[in-house]
Amino acid sequence: MFSSVIPSCKLPKKWKDPSPVTVSNPPSVQAADGAAKQPAHEQVYQRLRAQILFGELAPGQAVTIQGLVDALDSGMTPVREAIRRLISDGALVFQGNRRVSVPELRAEDIDELVFARKTIECELARRAATRIPRAEIDALEQLDLTLDKAIATGDVAGYLALNYQFHTALNQYADAPILADLADRLWLRFGPSLRVVCGRFGTQSFPDRHKDILEGLRKKDADLVVLAMERDVLQGMEQVRAGLTPVI
User: Fold this and answer.
1) What angle do the packed helices 177-201 and 222-244 form, to 10 degrees?
2) CA dist., res. 183 & res. 170, Å (int)
3) Residue 177, pLDDT score
4) For position 26, what pLDDT does the model report?
5) In the prediction, which pLDDT does 8 show?
6) Is 14 helix (H, G, I), strand (E, B) or coil?
7) CA distance 85 to 61
8) E strands within 6-120?
9) What b/e sequence results for 90-104 when a residue is b if at least 16 CB atoms lie within 10 Å of its CB, and e otherwise?
10) End-to-end CA distance of the chain, in Å?
11) What HEC string does 122-177 produce?
12) Distance CA 175, CA 248 (A)
């Protein structure tokens, strides 16, 4: 999950005034062709979802609904609908007084996430290994090389987005939409904490298994792909656990 080096970044600070919010589009969620044709509530949902997924809203950071309306330059109704969906996804929790926040991970949450990710993403990888066309393996390899460049240049946001793209792109070839949707929802649970890990560990090395996954795909060796994915998930989630553990 993690590439060879993660550049240093600062931990997001808690706001004194929780209303202001800066909302931008991360690299992987730039508006695609035809995105303008989406209903307003869907556009707002996708933008806010990306902010949560890539840690722009830090775990535990409360924001007001009005603050989101202002930041997203949207009406109250689309923002409320987006919040409702994201609460259902487990990506937001209602704090009362018109505030919401990204939930903070507990140790027992990570245990569950490890089990769920290994179960679901390994099965997706196994299925994808026998279905993915060679040209798409080449595309995945290029994506992974771009991910490496993002790390080398200190582009933390790019790294987080590209790492997510690698996994979701592979999942698409499993021909298992229900499992892929479940996997995607799980990323909303731990994605916000990856920036915390980045701030905690700086430029220390983190092993990943993307190259092993690609090797298995080229060999059409489903067992190798599954093993690499299992190790990738486990190593990544253990780094999240370590990053969230207070130093005594």
Assistant:
1) 40
2) 12
3) 97
4) 43
5) 38
6) coil
7) 19
8) 62-64, 93-96, 99-101
9) ebbeeeeeebbbbbe
10) 27
11) HHHHHHHHCCCCHHHHHHHHHHHHHHHHHHHCCCHHHHHHHHHHHHHHHHHCCCCH
12) 46
Q: Which residues of 29-62 are buried (b: 16+ CB within 10 A; e: fewer)?
A: beeeeeeeeeeebebbbbbbbbbbbbbbbbbbbb
Tell which residue, 75, 98, 94, 74, has the closest CA to residue 84.
Answer: 94
218: tokens are: 């080229």
Looking at residue 42, its amino acid is E
- Write down the pLDDT at residue 214: 98
Q: pLDDT digit string (tens) for 113-171?
A: 999 999 999 999 999 999 999 999 999 999 999 988 887 787 878 888 999 999 999 99
Burial (CB < 10 A; 0-12, 13-18, 19+), residue 88, is exposed
Length of the chain: 248
* Residue-wise burial string across 148-159, b where 16 or more C-beta atoms lie within 10 A, e elsewhere: bebbeeebbbbb
What the block records as the tokens of 197 is: 């890990």
